[in-house]
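just leaving the lab so this will be short. what follows is a protein written twice so to speak, once as letters and once as structure tokens for the fold. can you read through it and tell me how you think this chain folds. thanks a lot i owe you, the record is right below.

___
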Amino acid sequence: MKKVTSLLLSLIVLASAVLPLTAFAETKKEALTSQVNEDIAGQVEFLNITPSLDAAVDAYTLFRADQSKKDIFLAELNQNLTDNLGKIVVSGRQDAVVYACVINILTLFGENVESYNGVNIKADFEGLSDKTVSNPYYYRVVTEACKNIGNTTLGHHFVDELIANYYTLGQGMDYYGFSCDNTAAFLASIAPYKEDYAVYVEDAKTVINGFTTDEGCFYDSVYTDVSPDSTAMAMLAYASIGEHKTAKTLYDCLMKGFESPNYNGVIMAWGAENAYTTKEALMALTYFEPSLAVDDEPLVENTNNQNGTQTASKENNSDDNTIRSPQTGASVVFGFAAVTVGTAVLALSKRKND
């Protein structure tokens, strides 16, 4: 009986010491998930985007965050296909970026892009004679579309084109100059094929790191003030490649340094709530939010940040252990429950031996 009692007591001590920490960490992670979703909802409300084929990239950003306007977009798409005999035509042409966004959006909706209302949108995209990407920032939606339809060859074509036309090792992406934002957009664009372009992934990370401070990221060697745009774009890049902890650090910097005093997720610029910066933040958060479900790399820890970058909550400037409305006391309750259960087990064991 003494051996049984000793073993049970050891288990009780272990449960009361370890289990509360586990419960606390899970509670904090749930609080973070809830907070990010609140931020996204506030940004969607502030931006009030009406989805359309004319602004397909914005529509894709919206639907990654919120699908309440799904019917508006599908009605326009269906009419466009009808008017153009099964083709998607915007501004008088079939545009690769528009096709890519439609594929990504329909994939989000769970639609079959090989047979959507009798149209094989996948095949039409693959067969476009003109696959011009008008802006290097749009390669992200194109490579994601290739990933969604399982066409690695085409995905590599677009990545290779992006590298050849815009990227310099050691300097980053050149689009009216080298910058944090440009290189972050590049990294997000090659993310669907990151295993195949590991050299460029590591190089882009090194470049972005050169624009990074403890408070966030700045644009380039001329504009060195920490910027909400640059911080959001870097966050997008790291979230895209699955480096969740770095994305979390940048999320903290973005919200601590630039969120509206209304704490609605909206981002400030030049002293006012700003649509452009908020849209970039929304885009970043829609890549960061899914990472909160990853179990093998916890984003909320019970110790202070140990990498030299101090983060803070939005309301009270405490360390990373505090999200806006922490459910304090959960660990105490869980620990008490563990002791209670253990005590009951001991009592039951004693009765049987008596």
